[in-house]
Amino acid sequence: MFSGTRLRKSRSDGTWRVVDPERDQAAPGPDDESDPLEKLVVEEVEEVEEVDEVVVDDPLWEQPPPRVERYVLDTEKRLVCLRRHLVVLAEPFLTCIAGLVLVNYLADRLGDVQQLPNVLFGAWLVLLGRAWWKWQQWRGDWFIATDKRLLLTYGVVRRQVAMMPLTKVTDMSYNRSLPGRFLGYGELVMESAGQDQALSNIDRLPMPDQVYVRICEQLFGEVGGADTSRRMGARVRRMARRALPQRFR
């Protein structure tokens, strides 16, 4: 008679009722023993895991070349990796262009003077070589910040790496001139117990506001983390109360 039929005893009145397997799996009844708070926590964890899988490009971490990335340890959390602002190349390249215009002008005006065009062209080649050297320096200069230290790599022929532990930073500020506010660069000024001249002043750094906030978040991360944990805990408790039946609130 009851072949293939499932029965379930109600805990409220002790009566037995026939359970439809498909309906029972699709919509659990009132006798379901699952905890609403446990369901809420599982949903929150699944939501966090889904968010963690989303990969977003970090504008403060520009992928460095292998010769620079090798200085960053695998155990370090990557915070900032940037070159200096392109404004550092404005002066040498504008000088090179202005020199070329001046050479052409003088060559047309004083072309009859013996060997003068060659001398002017040689002087312009010096300006071109200077612009190329400044460009090579810009390509090799990298400012890197991790959760443990600050690094500055620089040099073309002789590669140099300046390093400062993040725990030794006693004060950090940044300055932005009027052109820097329009073009988007600034100057980071850091003080430490053992003063490192290479890292004490990093000028013409792009996105200085974001860089300053990112490093400060790491320096004072414990306070921010505690506040975030308290806010998340309060949010979970509010959602748990809303999920419970009215008589249990």
UniProtKB/TrEMBL annotation:
Keyword Transmembrane: yes
Protein name (database record): PH (Pleckstrin Homology) domain-containing protein
Biased composition (Basic and acidic residues): 10-25
Domain YdbS-like PH: 138-212
PANTHER family from the UniProt entry: BLL0215 PROTEIN
Transmembrane segments: 86-107
Source organism of this protein record: Kineococcus rhizosphaerae
Record bears the keyword Nucleotidyltransferase: no
Origin: domain of life: Bacteria
Start and end residues of each stretch annotated as Disordered: 1-37
Pfam family, one: bPH_2
Keywords, comma-separated and alphabetical: Membrane, Transmembrane, Transmembrane helix
